[in-house]
């Protein structure tokens, strides 16, 4: 696998979603996107050959908590989604991508143009980074933003409903909070079901199958202070586990924490 050193420095000034995508396309930016483009939706991404598209679409419908579908390409081979992002080139406009072959991670790159095929179908799935803005606005700290690292993500024993060959446990992202802040986070995030909604658990990690909170399966560990509890949200990395379990012959996803920034305002996803 190509060894890409992460560029953890934040962008020097607030940029529009289009400008962020253009910086990804030019190679100027390849870091995590948590905290970027306040006010705009971020998306997880899965790109699969057409033969798997119907089953994966059903997997998303069966599991809306970890896989809230925001959009799907109009046809195989399409690299744009005009309703979600102007001038989009899905092959180049994310900071990082992962390549899976026969269900196994084979490479991590910043451009998938050389991997592109006319039979590929793109899916965009809601991301918890989108509701972080509302948490911050209410005075709640997002520890991974404070510590300038990727959000920690864990495999859990919360099983998804299978569809075709796609199956597996839910992946959950974690943000430590005081119990009072956790309750407030539940109230806030319940307004955003298209970006994972309310947390799926808070408190004892072992209750959802996590044996070591200090060693996330994806992303980076963060500090959990005395008096805080880990709060877990369903995570859009879940499809990557289902894809590995299905052993699909080829797939492209985002690299965990490296999202596609859309032109859609977060306010459009609020139900209250």
What is the gist of this entry?
The protein is 21% helix and 25% strand. It has six helices and eleven strands.
Largest sheet data: 7 strands, antiparallel
Order of helices and strands: HEHEEEEHHEEHEEHEE
**Low-pLDDT sequence parts:** 1-12
| Rg of Cα set | 17 Å
Secondary structural class: alpha+beta
Q: What is the CATH H-level superfamily of the largest domain?
A: PSTPO5379-like
The gross shape turns out to be globular
- The CATH topology assignment of the largest domain is PSTPO5379-like
Number of helices: 6
In percent, how much strand structure appears in the residues? Answer: 15-25%
CATH class of the largest domain: Alpha Beta
Query: How many strands?
Result: 11
Mean pLDDT: 91
CATH architecture assignment name of the largest domain: 3-Layer(aba) Sandwich
Intertermini distance = 44 Å
| Count of discrete domains | 2
| Helicity, as a percent range | 10-25%
Report on the structure:
The protein is of the alpha+beta class and 272 residues long. It has 2 domains: 17-127 and 242-269, 3-Layer(aba) Sandwich (PSTPO5379-like), CATH 3.40.1640.10; 130-234, PSTPO5379-like fold (2-Layer Sandwich). The model is unreliable at 1-12 (pLDDT under 50). The longest helix is centred in the first third of the chain and has 13 residues, at 50-62. Strand 3 (97-101) and strand 4 (104-109) form a beta hairpin. It is built from 6 helices and 11 strands.
